[in-house]
Each structure stands twice: as structure tokens, then as C-alpha cells.
Amino acid sequence: LTPEEFRRLGHRYVDWVADHRAGIDDLPVRDDVVPGSVRSRFGPEASDGAQPLDALLPLVDDVVASADTRWQHPGFHAFFPANASLTSLLGEILSTGLGAQGMLWSTSPACTEVEQAVTDQLARALGLPEAFTHDGGGGGVIQDSASSAALVALLAALHRRSAATGGPAWRETGVTGTERVYVTAETHSSLAKSARVAGLGERGLRTVPFSPGTRTMDPAALADMLRADTADGLTPVLVCPTVGTTGTGAVDPVRDVARVARPHGAWVHVDAAWAGIAALCPEHRHLVDGVGLADSFCTNAHKWMLTAFDASLMWVRDARSLPAALSITPVFLRDKASDSGAVVDYRDWQVPLGRRFRALKLWAVLHGHGLDGLREHVRGHVRMAADLAERVRTHPGLELAAPPSLGLVCLRTTEGDDATRVLLEHVNASGRALLSHTEIDGRYVIRVAFGSLGTTDRHVDELWALLSGS
Ligand code: PLP
């Protein structure tokens, strides 16, 4: 494709995206798709001959657009919505257009330094301590996912811990089987996966009880566990408080948890994948209280910050911590800039070697919406959740299953699990809204997570009509 052909086709492709987004509210949130029906539209072999790219769009209409779950639909309130704003898409076009691969500073100085600059700006906008900025001795990095952030935090923790004890070095011998990671029953499964990938296995995961009457980590119980485990010859490696759990949006007491964990030498990784973005608003700044005592913090721009997947923001207090654990330098990757120590090579801050220029879409979002635009985006959803929660409170057949948290409302019917399940199916079958579920104390619960692009009060009214039968 020549640049001139790209220019012509690009207009058509952009028109396709614009038309899709402009008409999305008229489509169902989710198509009714028979498993295998999309795949069956493809022959077993790719064609040998090139085909005109103009002809691909009608095929996409036919094969893809009719078999989708529309994450950008204003009625999408399932899981946690993933905002792929058109603003961030403009940044994506630039990024892919440049086609840079930013594994080393020298392979794309712009890729590295824009990422450093925007993560520093965002650290300040979220109210993170200056120590988490590149200027302050720590720094931010854009991972593909919060799961990857948790994994590299654990690897850094394993390295730091083994280096501090003077025992066998984790980098040479791997885990010893004594390492333990501390979570709660509400912690995202990505921590269990990280423990598995890092070789700790299921026995490496310790579940700290909730404080009485809450679904948040009990710092006193954590203290008891850490003491007992240490006395038993185990090694506390990482404690993960969550700010905004996936199930109910519960917020662990980061400050108290970190105070308990630090004397044991455990790394404190704060998983704020969904809720952390809300700290852009001064009224939600309490969400980052105590993060100054943590070693790393993660929040997903690809959830609530108008940035297309993937863009998970991670900050560490010590810029050396990730390279210390992850850096391996074959001769073909050595260069003068790296050897000078004056640059960041982001390959050492992640598992893969290669990396995309993700920071451009973040820059586009910051530029195009400003912090005020991002704050208004969050505030609108929080207001909608408060509105829905109030309606649930006054409805005789519904009840809140957990205290509402930011844009998340957990509810159920008063008639039991089967009725709640039927209600969820009824809402989802309507095509006007899509919700997901969780379990709280063994009971089936509907989750309504406001956070999609374009959701308005009219969509809340529509959802309420479905939920309340009105
Ligand atoms: N942590 C929390 C609290 C989450 O809610 C999620 C996803 O919803 C994750 C981690 C995993 O996020 P990712 O898909 O970026 O790995």
C-alpha cells in the first residue's frame, strides 16, 4: 500500500468507524451468536492472491459487525467497561503509523520519553507521591494489562527479597517454595495467576480474612499471618491491597496494610486497576491514601480513562527495582545510551522485549480531554451509580448486595438467587443493556458497572425499566 493509496482507503476506513460509533446506540449491546458461526465463514486456507482493501469493509460488516459484543455501547455496564474513545484512536493511528518499537531508549527515544513524561504527569494528576515519578527516583511504565503489572511487581519482589536476605539469589535459583503472597478472597485472579507463573503455585497464595462486617483486608489478621508465617520459616514476599475490587468495588486500607507489611520486607503492590483513575478527582483522592508507603501502584487507563485497550499504568517507587529483577542483556542489545545509565530502557520494566508506542494515545487523551474532561467522565458515572442505588433502595423487590462504590452497584432481588439470575438474563436478552454477575457470601449478585462512553441518564432510565419491571 503506498501512502497515497493509504490516504484514500484511510478515509473510507475512518468513515466506517465513525458510522459504527454514530449508530451504535441503535444496535443491541450483544448479538446472539452461535459458537463457531464466525469461524465457519472462513475457508481453511488464506488466499494466495491479494484482494482489494475496499472489498474488506463489506466483509467486516457481514462477518464481524453482526457477531459482536459492543463494548463501546452506552448500554454496556458489564464487567468493568473499557473505554476506547475516538480521541485515543487518533493517538493509536499515529502510533501504528510511526511503527516504532521502543524496547530500548535508542530504538525510539520519543517512545520512551513521551511515556516517561505522561506517566509523570499522570502520577501528579492522581496525587501519587513524587517518589513515584521518573523525576523523583521511581517512575511509571505502561504495561499491556494490570495482570502483567502484578506479575512484574511479584518478580521485583522476589528479587528484592532474596537480595536482602543474602540467601540463594532468586535470579539464579528461582523460588525456594517458602515464598508467600498475601491477598483476600476479593483480590483479582490475576494475582493467583502471577503466583502460578512465578512458580509459587497455589500454596504460595495466602488469603487474609476480611475485617469484620466488610469485604476488605483486615490489617490485624494480616499482621498475625505474617508473624506466624515468618516463625514457620516462610518468606512473605508481596502483599496486594486492592483499591476497588472487581466484585464489589471494596477498598482495602492501603495505609494500614502497608504499615503491617513493610517491617516483614514484603513488597506492597496496590492493585487499583479499575478505581484508581477516579483519584483524578479531588473528591476521590482518598483512594490513593497510603500509596506513599507502597512499592508499586497500578491503574488501567484502558478501563475508565478513555484510552483504548491496552494501556495499564504502573508506577514503582524505585526505578531500579524492575530492571534489577528483569534485565538480561545479550550482546545485540548493548548500546552506548544504555551503558551510560542516563536513559530508561523499558524492555527491563516488562516481560516482553518489544513494545508499542502506547504513550501516544495517552498523550492524545490528555491533550484532547484535559484532566477536567477526564474528571467529568468519571463524575458522570459516579452520579449515575448513586442514582441507581437510590432507586434500588426504595424498590420493594430489589436490594443492594454491597455498598455502592464509585460507578459500581451490586444488587439482587429479594426473592433469592434464581429470581436474580432470571432478572439478569431478562436484562441481557433485551439488547438494551448488558450486565454481569458475581457472588457475595455464596449468593448470586448482579453487577452494574457504569463507565461506558456515551452512557446518559436516559440509559439509566432504560436500565431501571428493565430491572424494576416498570
Ligand atoms: N485487578 C482488578 C481489580 C480488576 O478489576 C481487573 C480487571 O477487571 C484486573 C486486575 C485485571 O485487569 P487486566 O485485564 O488489565 O489484566
TrEMBL record:
Lineage, uppermost ranks: Bacteria, Bacillati, Actinomycetota, Actinomycetes, Pseudonocardiales
Protein's name in the database: Aromatic-L-amino-acid decarboxylase
Residues that bear N6-(pyridoxal phosphate)lysine: 303
Single GO MF descriptor: aromatic-L-amino-acid decarboxylase activity
Keyword Mitochondrion: no
Highest taxon in the source lineage: Bacteria
GO term, biological process aspect, one: amino acid metabolic process
Cofactor: pyridoxal 5'-phosphate
Any one Gene Ontology cellular component term annotated for this protein: cytoplasm
InterPro entries in UniProt: Aromatic_deC, PyrdxlP-dep_de-COase, PyrdxlP-dep_Trfase, PyrdxlP-dep_Trfase_major, PyrdxlP-dep_Trfase_small, Pyridoxal-P_BS
Keywords in alphabetical order: Decarboxylase, Lyase, Pyridoxal phosphate
Family affiliation: Belongs to the group II decarboxylase family.
